[in-house]
Amino acid sequence: MLPRVADSLSFLYLDIVRIHQDDTGVCAEVTSERRGTETVYLPTAALSCVLLGPGTSITARALATFARHGTTVLITGAGGVRCYAATLPDSLTTTWLEHQTRAWADDTRRLAVATAMYEKRFGPGTVPAGANFNQLRGFEGQRVKALYQLLARQYKIGRFRRAYDPDSWDTQDPVNLALSSANTCLYGIVHAAILALGCSPALGFVHNGNQQAFVYDIADLYKADLTIPLAFSLHNSPDPEAAARRSFRDGLRLFKLLPRIVTDIQTLLAPGHPTDIPDPEEQLVDLWDPTTGTVPGGTNHTPGP
Fold first, then answer.
1. Of 293, 9, 34, 47, which Cα lies nearest the Cα of 19?
2. Is 216 helix (H, G, I), strand (E, B) or coil?
3. How much is the pLDDT for 2?
């Protein structure tokens, strides 16, 4: 179970389990050679969002119970690194969707949100008064290019140029491969947070014309701190794509990021609206393992030195 975040949102990630409904409630059934089949009942009424990872199956009755209790159900990749599909309950609040659509449909407010996004990335007061979208894009390009140059000097890899070309994927350098992989992981968990709030992933303030435009907007807030430094640190990795995915998934970085994403979205869409400030010291609740039982959350469990 993951920590409660703003608006009493609580997240649960499950994989390699069978979820079904019995006479008592919804339960996750796990089978292992050592412990046989074990059943864990899920607190459906207390869950806002359930992320179903690989190896998960769920019955229609269990899915209907989640819907009755107002739980959003997401189909994701391992560790939430992808978000493939979602079912949103009728009872999910439209408060944040209304904030989003009002700001998105008003050109002045849309520019204000885009400016706030820029200042959240690069610091307060970094945007001159009266800057338009074109100028914001120019400022953003200069900042990111300077970061690339700084990290390239730090890791002594010479000149770096960002390239994303799916048609010539295998010819790209390790940093570009790692960066694309890490960004994809980030998009998955941002997508989950947006859907859990009831916002539209398609209504972006900077990006436009794509069903994930708002996902790209929000993910950009964290790239300079997370994915870009990680990608450069993997410049010598023999498998940079997998290493980037493991870094996010095994370290639970993405789940720890969830409260921050939710709060940032709320602050951007409704600056005066009261929100819960996430506690940076908050720990994830324990994990459950079919062999050993309870294991600590927020810990990298990769075997070896």
1. 47
2. helix
3. 47
